[in-house]
């Protein structure tokens, strides 16, 4: 069976160019990911947190020959630029909007071949393919809408900004620790104390997982029940499947009810080891 490769532009994403002598050390003290060892042509997934450790904005840091890019949500790009400018103080850092379009290349199964051009492997999961910057569709790739990419992420059980919002969720609840989004060895960053404490304690009570059901997705925030007990709430989704923030001690391996309908939680293979203790 041949592999189908899809190309999608991501209008929901936009770029901030970073440069100057201090750009690495500047970002190193702010975000959850290590920047000092980032190489040109490599992307790393991370986040900017509140001082209390809640997730403000996700981002990909992309290494370039000189400086880097921050691949961020387009709707929040101006706010992120303002926040970075506030933190800059006397650091020799250059920050500017970059209008190169963001794209993605992924396959219906497995991993596509990396094409020529400015493409970097998605650092979260290999199945998520390659992120492209200022590129055209590679030969043979089928051009699809961004919604097709979002459906692929949901099939893989990978949450996104529509699920965690801003200043509401802890990054570990959104599985950043399992998707290579936090470097716990890099030292201090904004919100590091709370994030490290949650990880050290070893017992994560809530995580984002997909749920399956019949019919259209329930509204965002719909309560998920196991018997009469609350087991979580619905986040983003589509027909038959949605992301949910679930209590691991209640929601795994049991029959759930959402919007009056039966449902069940699915544990993606890449999460199985992490949630196994909670399911036991």
UniProtKB/TrEMBL annotation:
The CAF17 C-terminal domain, residue ranges: 206-272
Keyword Transmembrane attached: no
UniProt KW keywords: Transit peptide
UniProt GO BP: iron-sulfur cluster assembly
Domain of life: Bacteria
A Pfam family hit: Beta-barrel_CAF17_C
Keyword Transit peptide carried by entry: yes
NCBIfam families for this protein: ygfZ_signature
Protein name: Folate-binding protein
Lineage of the species this protein comes from: Bacteria, Pseudomonadati, Pseudomonadota, Alphaproteobacteria, Caulobacterales
């Amino acid at each position: 069976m041949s592999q189908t490769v899809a190309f999608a532009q991501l209008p929901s994403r936009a770029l901030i160019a970073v440069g100057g002598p201090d750009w690495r050390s500047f970002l190193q003290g702010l975000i959850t990911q290590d920047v000092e060892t980032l190489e040109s042509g490599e992307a790393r997934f991370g986040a900017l947190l509140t001082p209390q450790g809640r997730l403000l904005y996700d981002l990909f840091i992309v290494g370039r020959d000189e400086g880097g890019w921050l691949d961020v949500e387009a709707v929040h790009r101006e706010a992120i630029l303002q926040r970075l400018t506030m933190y800059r103080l006397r650091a020799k850092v250059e920050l500017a909007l970059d209008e190169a379009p963001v794209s993605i290349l992924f396959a219906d199964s497995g991993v596509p071949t990396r094409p020529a051009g400015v493409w970097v492997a998605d650092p979260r999961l290999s199945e998520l393919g390659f992120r492209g910057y200022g590129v055209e569709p590679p030969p043979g790739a089928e051009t699809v809408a961004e919604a097709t990419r979002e459906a692929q992420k949901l099939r893989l059980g990978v949450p996104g900004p529509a699920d965690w919002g801003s200043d509401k969720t802890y990054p570990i609840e959104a599985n950043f620790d399992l998707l290579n989004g936090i470097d716990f060895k890099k030292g201090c960053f904004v919100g590091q104390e709370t994030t490290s404490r949650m990880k050290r304690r070893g017992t994560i009570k809530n995580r984002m997982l997909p749920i399956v059901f019949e019919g259209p997705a329930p509204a965002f925030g719909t309560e998920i029940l196991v018997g009469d007990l609350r087991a979580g709430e619905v986040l983003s989704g589509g027909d038959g499947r949605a992301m949910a923030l679930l209590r691991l001690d209640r929601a795994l391996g049991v029959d759930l009810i959402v919007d009056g309908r039966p449902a069940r939680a699915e544990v993606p293979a890449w999460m199985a080891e992490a949630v196994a203790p909670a399911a036991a």
